[in-house]
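Justification of computing resources. Each target in the renewal requires a structure prediction run like the one illustrated here; the chain below, 379 residues long, is used simply to show the kind of job we budget for.
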Amino acid sequence: MSSTHKKQKLIVSALVGAIMIPANVWTVEAAEEGQKKLSSTLPIAGIESVLEECYETNVKENINLYMVPTEEGEYFNRAFSNVDDGGFTYIRSAPDEASDWNGKLYSDSTVTVLEYAGDWTKIRSGSVEGYVPGNVLYTGEEAKQHAKEYEKEEATVDAYVLNVRNGQGTDADILTQVLLNEQYEVIGESVNNWYPVKVGEVEGWVSGDYVTVESTWAYAESKEEETQRIAKEDARKETQVSDTSKGVRPNSSDIQETVSLQSEGNSAGQSVVNFACQFIGNPYVWGGTSLTQGADCSGFVQSVYANFGIALPRTTYDMVNVGYEVSYEQAMPGDLVLYDGHVGLYMGDGNIVNAMNEVDGIGICSATYAPIITIRRVL
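Resulting structure tokens:
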């Protein structure tokens, strides 16, 4: 899973040659209004032969003079941060300590050098462009020597919901969950196709079957990106709900399919869905209401909502009257989707999470797998 970052740069010098042709053979007359007239006593074939001879003697034999690889290679303008481990330096809008900062260059970051301005260096790193003191960068030969220290592996989530566990294997406890296309740093070597990752302040393991791991560089973080990251981490802490008071941890499968990523307008409903998805893979039990030991469709929905302090009826026949009705087009995460004798929780993107049957247990399927009787919103 290594990637190659080296690129060869060629300096191509333009070949400017003069073809000496006797004046009595080819004459050019100045013309009015920018026009040119060409009068020639040399046949066209003669011109072509002169050009061909020039090419053969002056270009072919000297081609190496015009295509010379640079000695600097990729480190001509690539540099790496030289700040204390875990620290950062501000990227400023001007080469002045008093200027506003628009980003932070962390200890593991790589940059592209745009300009050297005295004691300051203008850089671009990620989405941030600005100035940093020159002494906080490894450049040139030093950059080449330190490059491997800054190359890292990053895991991109391929599943819609993926459990982060405290060990390798689906029997390990769930610490948190990550969503489709989110990216996290791999912080160590893989073990039996399980990768150690860091999610906020949580360190755990994810299955290699549901992530794509690639070598990459770390970049600076803009002021706006920092604000968004902190808000996202705070939201994750608030929505991580576990039944630790009962000493129970869910043991769901890592094969978790669809969670809506378009739910900003219904954060409470998305919290319900996120909680429900922890139990995917757990058993279906007729008449059951246990999220870990087994539940039927209505027992599953009832128990999920009970976790948020909302009491729902026990059967689907009574659930058709709770809350208020919305259309399928208006459905949002957390809404109850009711069928003839069945109920599930809408996730978004046309899917529901539900206690399906004894074979499939708690899982995900299309919201339109059967005719919908009603969709009820209780939040």
